[in-house]
Amino acid sequence: MDARELARRWARTWTEAWPVRDVEAIAALQSEDGDHWASMFRRYRGRAGLRVYLQECFAEESRPAEVRFAEPQVDGDAAAVEYWSVIYVKGQPTTISGCTLLRFDETGLVAEARDYSHVKEGRHAPPAGLFGAVPGLAPGGQS
């Protein structure tokens, strides 16, 4: 499988697994010794580390997240995947926009993931064009 298909599989898995908080589905994409950087200061080592990160994040969410991923941008064994999500903490919406840089190993698993994100209170629509139309939201605005 080439990096484009691997990145699409990664995005598809996150799209399906994040709203239902399926830690194992997401962790299965990570190599046993791969790194997941939640930011430049938060490194989670291996599949076990990624599980810890996901459990920490999902524990804050009070209802299913709304998640969208853009088409991966690929070069060699690496990909960049932009995402837009709305999570609910104590019932209140919070928008997360970000991009994850991925490098895949020879087995097709994530050897390194570096996540860069911005968080803003409220429910905000993504920029037009990247993620398709979001029902009930105008691009860049709140519902």
From TrEMBL:
Pfam families: SnoaL_2
Domain of life: Bacteria
InterPro entries: NTF2-like_dom_sf (IPR032710), SnoaL-like (IPR037401)
Domain SnoaL-like: 12-112
Protein name: SnoaL-like domain-containing protein
Protein's organism: Micromonospora cremea
